[in-house]
Amino acid sequence: MKKTHFLMVLGLALVFEGSQCQEREVFVAQGSLAVLPCVDETSAISHPTAVYWSREVGNGLKTVWRRDKSGLEFRPVRDPARAICPIPNFGKADYSLHITETTMEDEGKYVCEVQGKTRMVKVIILRVVRASFSPDVVVEGSRTNAKCDISGGTKFVTINWKQNGMFTSTARLSNVSQRDAGNWTCRVAYDGGVVEATASLQVKGIVNPQDDSSVVYAAVGSSVSLPCVFTDGLIPYTVTWNKTPTTSYSSVPLPASFNKSAGPSASATIQRVQDGDEGMYTCSGMMKGLNMINVNRRIKLQRRMELVVTQVLRSSSSSGPVTLTCHLSNSSQITSYEWLRVTYGPNNTQTVTSVRKTKSYRIQEVTEKDAGEWMCRYYGEQGVLGNVTYQIHVMGAVKSGNSSSGNKTAMVMGLGFLFLVVFLILFQMYRNYRRKKMIHLYPAMETIVHQAATERERRGRSAAKMAEACVGDPQPVCV
How far, in Å, CA of 414 to CA of 422, rounded? Predict the structure, then answer.
């Protein structure tokens, strides 16, 4: 009886068209939540007593979810159940069916029947959109195709592709590179809305750098790393490095301080960059067993990168201005230069001050304030590309400054000593003047002082004569 009842409901839904029987399509991406609408727009069913959701399977209907007049809820035996009709929404006249983690097998025709004071029947056709790659894991240089599957056909829909959020005109990749890796989105536009399904493409190979356009900048005397990183799980059994000048294709010896590592990260390091190390460096790795058809096939992956050596050139004469020039072995990607002054404060704090935006900076007269660190910063289309520093040593200026400072100090000290001597002389003269003035004020004191001085002078002469007599003619007794 139940089967006959639902067949009748389906027949009514397919035959009648009107306010109580409607059919519509719903598109949803695989793996997302599907909401099959069943809403009473007329509010004719104010107090629904039963809700039935069923799905057409073959020539019959299969119950997906139902709620009887008694309020008893029935659902298929499934752990966990993915299809449910939220009962709290019934008060809003919304009897929509929610299907979580939608799969391609969920597509098909669904029937919603709501029984209350009146009966409402709606038919919903669920179409599932799936994006995929065949194969979804590829090696650089191989082929793959992006596919957008829509259950039930692609009638009256428009399909576009986006790669990492940007629209692309092709979904067939004949020569896969690292730039093709990432998320590819199938965008399906239909009458009623838009749905997007996303698939991830993994490209095995050298992930850093992504292509042969990489440029590495390094100053003379500094250390630089040349990247060559393979994707996770991909370990080459042999890695080689070669160097070729930018003006020829013949190999030249690697720098003396060149060191390479092994494993997934086969990056190399030049411990101390020298003038002449510029050129094209090639990292090559031999892979094995990456081809799906022939597991014994060996695949060679390689990446080329350019090393640009930077330095500051100084031009000056024995006496005259000094010119500092920011020199790069290849400046084709440089758009502008900037000179900056670098000063250091307490706790080794660094202060960088912009001086001028130019390739060459001219100093008219080098003084002690110009000594220290100067920095040339160079820019490209994408922003700052690197820096190169230069130290200015002003020994002559420092000595001259010290000598001048010493002369000034000696002059100050001499003037001070002279001032002190003059001061003492004037002070003594002033004391003598005061003493004489005081003596003139007291004549009796002046007489006493004069007599005392005369007596001391007489006694001095007498003592001298006695000493001379004793020495000249010795006597038995000399008192």
Answer: 12
